[in-house]
Amino acid sequence: MKTFFILLLSIISCIAVTAQEYDVLLKNGTVVDPKNSLNKQLDVAIKDGKIAKVAANIAASSSKRVIDVSGLIVAPGFIDIHTHVFVGSNPETFADGSNSVSPDDFTLRNGVTTVVDAGTSGWRNFPVFKRQVIDKSKTRILAFLNIAGSGMTGSPYEQDMNDMDAYMTSLTAKKYPDVIVGVKIGHFEGSDWAPFDRALEAGKLAGKPLFVECHLPQFSLEDQLKKMRPGDIITHSFEKVSERMPVTDDNGNVRPFVLEAKQRGVLFDLGHGGAGFWFSVAVPAMKNGLPPNTFGTDLHRFSMNAGMKDMLNVMSKYLAMGMSFNDVIQTATWNAARAVKHEELGNLSEGSPADVAVIRVRDGKFGFVDAGGNSIEGTKKLEAELTLRAGNVVWDLNGISAKKFGDKK
Fold first, then answer.
1. In this structure, how many other beta carbons lie within 10 angstroms of the beta carbon of residue 407?
2. Tell me, what CATH number does 41's domain have?
3. What digits encode the pLDDT tens for the residues 89-119?
4. What is the extent of the structural domain holding 375?
5. Do both 242 and 133 map to the same domain?
6. Does residue 344 form part of some domain?
């Protein structure tokens, strides 16, 4: 009889384990997934690092781990398409230098699960970047490859046209097709169009978009936009004091050639950084038909301690400026995924990577600052409660996924 009961308990235990078909279940949150037109209370089930099911009232007994996210927003992990994360020990440089920042230190705590490095490396040193940072980070890191062979190593290297090789750049992009998402031009101070044209050529050879960082003082904004193709991206889109004219005129109207570029399919990235975002340009631009396509933060050593701060601050800033909550989430997720041609990201579709941002919307009185030291007030601020990367909890602000102390279960 004793043997019978032991066997019965074993069978019951096996049935219970079999019934737990999911690894993690996020219950009772409000799912906001613009790609799939979702904005309602649903549960999200995860298995083997992928989204397994999004539906109402998924049984808690079906998952090995259940996390109650009542009162919170469940969104796809955010994608920051303008960062500098080729961090290393070289002083006062970005490529393998201390002006770049280690991504895991600043991303996961803000719901960011994917970043794109904006040309910090070129074809010569990308393998070092991949080995030293990309392969070692929990954050997914993609990259725009600089047309300058050694990337952002400062002068005179970024001015050396002899090292701007379209063919070698395209070969490197083809060698790492899942990581390199485009080619970047920027920080060139001369008056020769060759660097811009070579970056375009490299993009064409590799079948990748061009990322234009606008630090090109000899070239007008209009001329740059005319050269760009549908799907190419211009960043620092809402600068005021810069090497080029702003996208809006003195009356706050978006310049006709800017709207024409937008209609052709050129994408406008925020590129906040330390100097790339001004309310006096961004607010009228948004009201007159030019919101940012993506929320690239231009994360680096200086911007994170200035008006930019982090991705959630940028998103909260746009809520304060009048952008709808759904549009803010879409800009940080699905728009960004499409811009870098990684449409497996930025959504909670079944089979997509389980990169998830669980966000609290705090109510109160908050201040937001632009690159010129100007501030506006807002009543809502986004805060990351929980971040999952490939189905694993990588950030938990208040321990909502942790086992309660003293609980023996």
1. 7
2. 2.30.40.10
3. 988 899 999 999 999 999 999 999 999 999 9
4. 22-75+353-396
5. yes
6. no
